[in-house]
Amino acid sequence: MFAPWIRTLSKNLFGRYLLVTNVVSGGILLATGDVIQQTIELAGPNNGQKRDWSRTGRMCIIGTLMGPFNHFWYKMLDFYLPGTTFKTITRKILCDQVVAAPFFASFFLIGMGSLEGESIETSIADLKKKFWAIYLADWTVWPPAQAINFYFMPSHLRVIYVNTITLGWDTYLSYVKHRDANGKRAALASLEKEEIVIPANVELNGNIKKAQ
User: Fold this and answer.
1) Where in the sequence is the domain holding 46, given as residue range(s)?
2) Where is it located (predicted)?
3) Is there a domain that residue 203 lies in?
4) How do residues 5-48 score in pLDDT, each as one tens digit?
5) Tens-digit pLDDT profile for residues 108-154
6) pLDDT in tens, 82-111
7) Measured between alpha carbons, how far is 46 from 41 in angstroms, rounded to an integer?
8) If you compute the radius of gyration of the chain from its CA atoms, what whole number of angstroms results?
9) Staple 27 to which of 64, 83, 119, 120, CB 3.0 to 4.6 Å?
10) Are 151 and 89 in contact, with CB atoms under 8 Å apart?
């Protein structure tokens, strides 16, 4: 009963409207990664804080903006490096790691900083501080993931596959981007909970009361 409808939907999503599918899925999954990361944060030292939906919205915007690059990047790789031989896949992975990975890390950190109201100088400083943590972690995750992608996945499913794997990766990106702010919030929350006890024989102006 639903089979023809599902086939038509699949044909449209992964054929005629593939660009839209890749863009929208990128935004949704980056936002989902942030929701997961905030859930982890709120279960820890920041459990007194409220969920920041505006932060999730900004993550969604960045994921959506990166969607077109993802879409055309993989089409270009398949065009210039066709085939699934070991040599071809190795070249694709190296291109992805040397070109796409640094671009995405830089775009993410500077883009998020801009959406959060940071100056370009502050965003660049944040990029210098966090870039290598993201880029080195990228080398441990994406080469094996992309080997599977380039060998097994048809061209029109590459971005969807990457976006799915990216769910865990996006959780990590959210953590790296916001860990400094989370530490500051936790410290402030801890200070707010502390009670200052004033001895009974001390006045607020610091003078010692005379013993009665």
Assistant:
1) 3-178
2) Membrane
3) no
4) 666 766 666 677 788 888 998 899 889 989 998 998 888 776 66
5) 999 999 999 999 999 999 999 999 999 999 999 999 999 999 999 98
6) 999 999 999 999 999 999 999 999 999 999
7) 6
8) 24
9) 64
10) yes
Give the whole-angstrom CA distance, residue 135 versus residue 105. Answer: 7
> If phi over 0 gives left and psi between -120 and 50 gives alpha, with beta otherwise, what is residue 206?
left
Consecutive H or E run containing 177: helix 158-193
Contacts of 133 (CB under 8 A, 6+ apart): 176
In a domain, 209, yes or no: no
Q: What's the angle, vertex CA 193, arms to CA 191 and CA 197, rounded to 5?
A: 90
Spatial distance between the Cα atoms of 92 and 86, rounded to a whole number of angstroms:
10
* Alpha-carbon distance values, 29 to 11, 68, 74, 149, 191 (Å): 21, 15, 18, 18, 35
Alpha-helical (H) ranges within 1-49 are 3-11, 18-42
Tell me if the pTM is above 0.85.
no
- Rounded-to-integer distance, Cα 154 and Cα 140, Å: 24
Number of structural domains (the chain) is 1
Alpha-carbon gap, residue 120 to 109, rounded angstroms = 11
Question: Does a structural domain hold residue 173?
Answer: yes
Contact 77, 92 (CB under 8 A): yes
Burial (Cβ within 10 Å: 0-12, 13-18, ≥19) of residue 175: middle
